[in-house]
Amino acid sequence: MSARQFKGRVVVKGSATAEALVSKGGFNTLASYQHSLMFGDKEGKCSDQNNSDLYKKPMAGKALCMPQTIGSTTGGLVLYCASAMSRQPAMLLFSKEIDSLAAAGAVLAAVWTDKPMPTVDMLGDDFLSYVQTGDRISLAEDGTVTVER
């Protein structure tokens, strides 16, 4: 088993370990969670048919790895609602700088629910090139991400 570490900026503090789920393209928060939040899919399967990396894959409890979020201005509220409904990823890991909407959703989940999503951004393009769906991810409170194969 090999491991590699990356260091990012902590947006929402926390530690977690989970299986990686990787989107190489932008993550459309509303399109990805719409079906799960409206129709009760507790696994949080991605409903964004335009994201071939994630479509129909369960997101709940995963280390969601992505460059950035895209799409609707409701993105922050969608992340908060996913957390409030226990359908949230175990952590959010961004290769680029987080946008204000995704940051707001992660912060609201940490403040208003007992199910926070530790969030780290600015992990770098090398992180997103390296990590693969199925890898084991461990996140430390200081923003260190360990990827194990």
Automatic annotation (TrEMBL):
Molecular-function annotations in GO: lyase activity
Superkingdom, natural source: Bacteria
Pfam families for the chain: AcnX_swivel_put
Name of this protein: DUF126 domain-containing protein
InterPro entries the record matches: PMDh-S-like (IPR012016), PMDh-S-like_dom (IPR002840)
Phosphomevalonate dehydratase small subunit-like domain residues: 42-111
Organism ancestry: Bacteria, Pseudomonadati, Spirochaetota, Spirochaetia, Spirochaetales
Organism from which the protein derives: Candidatus Aphodenecus pullistercoris
Keywords: Lyase
